[in-house]
């Protein structure tokens, strides 16, 4: 079994990582490809069929995780919604059987992936649907080499393109102490919000893992690199079908799969390496703690404005926000300065 934590080497803390990019199609046996397609699109409701779909998806993830373990990594990351139940939940969440199916799917995922962790001696991070108290969450979990769940995070930012009708939003951005260090998680859309990554960094995250279903273009790479560089915290992105990547604390992509399905991005990071921000030899997390001005970030911290409908944009909305903030005395001084 591999060392369960980072490898110490002359003061270094080396962490070997695989960011996985499993194929998003064509992986099911021909006799069951139709079933996988139907469940993935939310068109299959029979619990037996849905759970068979889950078993096929788990086997697909295990295949690429076995390859990652063969590369002698300590942690492997698989994408968001690894069992592809998002559309099923969106269309069926009001039915009593939905929670039962999602609960059983989660149990199968943890049991099978946990067995792989024990057998191969690795950590695994992956996205999976969860349900608690009648709610459904888009969750990322970390399993340790004993197969135990040591960290769990519910996606906090849900795009109003439809996911807000599928899942309930998580309420916290947690940082977890593990054998490999202090880790944080974001899922897909979360990365669009700089505040989320900054919160994890300021809470002491040494590395952030991001299972996703939305990292494909050059601008995705650019945004991910800026997040890591801004806070001197490495970022590991696992994406369906390609474009998984590993970014170091200086914002450099040290491994990337490209647009290649069923591929791995593998790299070793030193979590003890002195971190520098741009051309300064400083750790952005430490430097920015003393330079931040939260008292003037009023618009970022404001809450309570009317929730806008998707696609509702334009000056009218901006004016509405300004009026609401002015009513509450937020940003008034800045507004007077601008007019003057």
Verbal overview:
The chain has 340 residues and is an alpha/beta fold. It folds into two domains: 286 residues, 4-Layer Sandwich (Nitrilase/N-carbamoyl-D-aminoacid amidohydrolase); 42 residues, no CATH class. 35% of the residues lie in helices and 22% in strands. It contains ten helices and 13 strands. Strands 1, 2, 3, 4, 5, 6 and 13 form a seven-stranded mixed sheet that branches. A hairpin with a 2-residue loop joins strand 7 and strand 8. Helix 2 runs parallel beside helix 4. The radius of gyration is 21 Å and the shape is globular.
SSE inventory with pairings:
Blueprint: E1 7-9, E2 12-21, H1 33-40, H2 47-70, E3 75-77, H3 86-92, H4 96-120, E4 123-132, E5 135-143, E6 149-154, E7 175-178, E8 181-185, H5 194-202, E9 207-212, H6 218-231, E10 235-239, E11 245-247, E12 253-256, E13 263-270, H7 284-291, H8 298-301, H9 315-327, H10 332-339
Parallel strand pairs: 2-3, 3-4, 8-9, 9-10
Antiparallel strand pairs: 1-2, 2-13, 4-5, 5-6, 7-8, 10-11, 11-12
Helix pairs in contact: 2-4, 5-6
Count up the domains. Answer: 2
Shape: globular
Flag low-confidence runs: 332-340
Q: Specify the helix fraction band.
A: 25-40%
Q: Number of DSSP helices?
A: 10
State the total count of DSSP E strands.
Answer: 13
Succession of helices and strands: EEHHEHHEEEEEHEHEEEEHHHH
Give the overall average pLDDT: 88
């Amino acid at each position: 079994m591999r060392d369960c934590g980072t490898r110490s080497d002359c003061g270094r803390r080396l962490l070997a990582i695989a960011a996985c990019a499993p194929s998003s199609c064509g992986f099911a046996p021909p006799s069951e490809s139709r079933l996988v397609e139907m469940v993935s699109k939310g068109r299959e409701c029979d619990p037996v069929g849905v759970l068979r779909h889950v078993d096929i998806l788990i086997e697909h993830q295990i295949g690429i995780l076995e390859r990652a373990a063969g590369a002698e990594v300590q942690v492997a990351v698989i994408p968001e919604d690894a069992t592809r139940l998002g559309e099923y939940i969106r269309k069926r969440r009001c039915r009593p059987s939905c929670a039962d199916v999602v609960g059983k799917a989660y149990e199968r995922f943890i049991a099978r992936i946990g067995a792989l962790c024990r057998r191969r001696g690795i950590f695994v991070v992956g996205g999976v649907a969860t349900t608690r108290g009648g709610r459904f969450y888009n969750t990322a979990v970390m399993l340790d080499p004993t197969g135990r769940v040591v960290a769990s995070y519910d996606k906090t930012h849900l795009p109003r393109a439809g996911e807000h009708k599928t899942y309930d939003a998580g309420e916290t951005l947690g940082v977890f102490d593990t054998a490999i260090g202090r880790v944080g998680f974001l899922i897909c859309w979360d990365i669009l919000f700089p505040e989320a990554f900054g919160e994890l960094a300021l809470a002491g995250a040494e590395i952030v893992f991001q299972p996703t279903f939305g990292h494909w273009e050059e601008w995705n790479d650019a945004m991910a690199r800026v997040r890591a560089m801004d806070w001197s915290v490495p970022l590991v992105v696992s994406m369906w079908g390609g474009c998984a990547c590993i970014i170091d604390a200086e914002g450099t992509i040290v491994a990337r799969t490209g647009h290649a399905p069923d591929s791995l991005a593998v790299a070793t990071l030193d979590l003890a390496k002195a971190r520098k921000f741009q051309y300064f030899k400083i750790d952005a997390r430490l430097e920015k703690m003393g330079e931040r001005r939260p008292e003037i970030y009023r618009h970022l911290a404001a809450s309570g404005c009317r929730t806008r409908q998707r696609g509702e944009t334009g000056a009218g909305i901006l004016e509405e926000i300004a009026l609401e903030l002015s009513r509450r005395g937020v940003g008034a001084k800045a507004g007077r300065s601008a007019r003057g």
